[in-house]
Amino acid sequence: MIRTIIIEDEKPAVRRLEKLLGLFSDLEVVASLNSVEEAVGWFQENEHPQLIFSDIVLGDGLSFDIFDKVSTKAFIIYTTAFDQYTLKAFKLNSIDYLLKPIEEEDLAKAIEKFKSFLPEEGTVNSQEIRQIVRKEKSTLSRILVKIGYNLKVVSINEVSCFYSENKIVYLQTKERNYPTDFTLDELENVLDETKFFRVNRQFIISSDYIKNIHTSPNYKVDLDFQPNEEITVSRERVKDFKDWLIKS
């Protein structure tokens, strides 16, 4: 039997997932946990499972906070309504990422994917899994940002640029800027490359919001909405930038 736990703070979602997992005779759900605090305590006092189904946004924080506090060799299938965390999820022991509402067919595929990496003795070939998930690339469509104690979902279509300032990466919209949890290097891997381009070490811009392009003495881009700073295309990126403009 594959020992499994659920980390989820919405009771209807727990009941649905338990029902779906009940269709798999070789899975045993040994615990359902509903907060970061409860999960940390459970991991500290119990034998760790082989597989975890975890929501990301919990009432008292993100489930990533759990694994910052406890170390586990269990692998994780994330279940969430937000798709912005794909990259960070795959940096942990994640083998798949399911968007809510979870469909039975998608769940079955995720479980079969996990089982395909289980040798006969039931241990996980973590190195092979990491090699494969690194090749899987997901594209952001929404970003969850914090405003004080509140959360706001920003559509990627509203973002004119991402930029780094004082070691924090911000996204810019028509209304204002918002701090994010990403680095620019991470964003390059999860943004639609036909729409977004890294013009220099500080800026990633969206083709949807380019207002004007100056070519002399340097390539400089004006966006409809941008911080109070010039956006210059670095010399080594000019050729790629022009190619990107044609394709975008």
From TrEMBL:
Residues 3-115 form the Response regulatory domain. InterPro entries: CheY-like_superfamily, LytR-like, LytTR_DNA-bd_dom, Sig_transdc_resp-reg_receiver. The keyword Thylakoid does not apply. Residues 143-247 form the HTH LytTR-type domain. The modification 4-aspartylphosphate is found at residue 55. One of its GO terms (molecular function) is DNA binding. Keywords: Phosphoprotein. PANTHER family: STAGE 0 SPORULATION PROTEIN A HOMOLOG (PTHR37299:SF1), TRANSCRIPTIONAL REGULATOR-RELATED (PTHR37299). This is Two component transcriptional regulator, LytTR family. It comes from Epilithonimonas mollis.
